Amino acid sequence: MSPFLTAYFARIGWKQPATVDIDTLRALHLHHNCAIPV
Question: Taxonomically, which superkingdom (predicted)?
Answer without folding.
Answer: Bacteria
